[in-house]
Amino acid sequence: MDDLQYGTRNKRGDWAPNQPAETAPLFALPPRLMAILKWLPHYFFPWNVIFAASAVAYWAWVIPPKETMQTFAIGWIAWLYAVNAICVLFFYGAFELHLYVLKRQENRFKYNGKFPAEQKSKAFWFESQNLDNMLRTFLSGVTVWTAVEVAMLWAYANGYAPWLSFTENPWTLAVVALVVPIIHEFHFFCIHRLIHTPFLYKWVHSVHHNSVNPSPWSSLSMHPVEHLLYFGTAFYHLILPSSPILMLYQLHYAGFGAIPGHVGFDKVEIGEDKLVNSHAYAHYLHHKYFEVNYGDALIPLDKWFGTWHDGTPEGEARMQERYRKRKEKLAARKARVEVRRAAQ
After folding, report:
1. What average pLDDT does the segment 107-120 reach?
2. Helices marked H in the chain
3. For this UniProt entry, which segments traverse the membrane (predicted)?
4. Which distant-in-sequence residues (6+ apart) come within 8 Å of 100 by Cβ?
5. 13 and 128 share a domain?
6. CB-side neighbour CA atoms (13 Å) of 216
7. 64 Cβ contact list (under 8 Å, min separation 6)
8. pLDDT tens sequence across 94-109
């Protein structure tokens, strides 16, 4: 498949789409009804339906009975960790195998023309991005994911979280199910801005940003503190009128949903003539430039706070102008400090 029909490639082999990154029309003002209706299928397919289905499957075949979850016990906790680890291995591993090991579509639609395995770096354990990312995913990521999952299921089982039944509250639960991605977006933007503050970035978030050229295993390659903040999106269900299935959907949206944004390819080829959009471009630009696109563009929070970069020259100019103003402020602050010191 010819990816140059959809974008351009520079001399370094990096590919960029012809169309700039866009925010969803859901919160646009004035409202654009036709744009929303045209976009609406993308809200569900393919990713959100997959994550919701995985939550239902967990509830049907993985989650233990309510009586078991009322008491913390190594048996059911270890069982959940094992299932989470196996699911991550297969889901993340499928993308890694298809795109990075077998390289079935070579570098077609790949934002960064190079592959992480080709580049050694002392920023990573054993100087290997892939090995570092995998170890952090299973040692910390799946562990924290499971811990949050266990804590929430225990809370539901003991009546500490509002558990509504689908038979009695179908419309309330339907609304909560619809806003799960919005809850994630709001939460992700807030904690993402928080961990980009200098202290937390240096000691926490820099671990994730070591993967400037992200790949599937980069998705959950984070510091344990960031893992806790990230999976903390499930804690909203301690106060929302919800159910364990929707809480699991929230967790799966975070855990499995990290893949599309870090897959490193704009489109994944399925067969010879089908493409699945990853919608990863906005987040790839965040990994490339660090201080843009803190959200995933479902809610235009970056536009509202002036940190949006759509990949165009205009977006680049806005980013550079913001950097220039910040540099001027820092220089002015330093000058004022020096004047005070001289006056003393």
Report:
1. 93
2. 33-44, 47-61, 66-69, 74-95, 129-136, 142-157, 170-194, 198-200, 206-209, 224-231, 244-255, 258-262, 281-289, 301-305, 313-343
3. 43-61, 73-95, 138-157, 169-191
4. 115, 116, 117, 130, 215, 216, 264
5. yes
6. 17
7. 76, 79
8. 999 999 999 999 999 9
Alpha-carbon span 179 to 139, nearest angstrom? 30
Q: Specify whether 224 is located in the same domain as 335.
A: no
For tokens 């500490």, what's the residue? 160
Contact 185, 296 (CB under 8 A): yes
DSSP class of residue 276? E
Q: What is the pLDDT of residue 272?
A: 84
What is the C-alpha separation between 309 and 284, in angstroms, rounded?
11
List C-alpha distances in Å: 258 to 193, 262, 264. 17, 7, 12
Same domain? For 325 and 287 the reply is: no
Would you say residue 118 has pLDDT above 90? no
Tokens representing 11 are 């001399």
The verdict on 70 and 106 lying in the same domain is yes
**Tens-place pLDDT, residues 210-237:** 999 999 999 999 999 999 999 999 999 9
> Do 34 and 182 fall within a single domain?
yes
Verify that 319 and 338 share a domain, yes or no: yes
Mark whether 145 and 218 lie in a shared domain. Answer: yes
Residue 199: both structure tokens together: 């202290």
Looking at the fold, whether 27 and 94 belong to one and the same domain comes out as: yes
The tokens for 276 are 């699945």
The candidate with the shortest Cα–Cα distance to 318, out of 278, 297, 291, 281, is 291
Neighbours of 62 (CB within 10 A): 15
Q: Say how far apart CA 192 and CA 194 lie, in whole Å.
A: 5
Residue 29 has pLDDT above 90, yes or no: no
Domain count, the chain: 2
